[in-house]
Amino acid sequence: MNESRDPRLDEAYRQTARDEPPAELDERIRAAARRAVDAQPQSLAARAAAYRRRSWSARWRVPLSIAATVVIAATLTLMMQEEERRPREEAPAPATSTDQMSAPTAKPEPARRDASPSSSGTSTTSMRQSPSVPLEEQRSSARPSAPTPPQPLEKRREQPVEAERNAAPTAAPSAAAPSGAAASASDGAGSPAPAVKAAPQSSPATVETKPAAPPPAMAPAAPEPASRLSPPLSRERALGDRPARAMRESPLARSPEEWIVEIRRLKAEGRESDATAELAEFRRRYPDYVLPTDLAR
Amino acid sequence: MLAYAAGDAAAFDALYARHRGAVFRYLRRQAGNAAIAEEIFQDVWLRLIDARASYAPRAKFTTWLFTIAHNRLMDHFRANARSALVSYDDNPIDDVAADTPRPDESLARKQDAARLLAAIEALPAAQREAFLLQQEGELSLEQIATVTGVNRETAKSRLRYAMGKLRAELREPERT
Question: pTM for the complete prediction?
Answer without folding.
Answer: 0.41
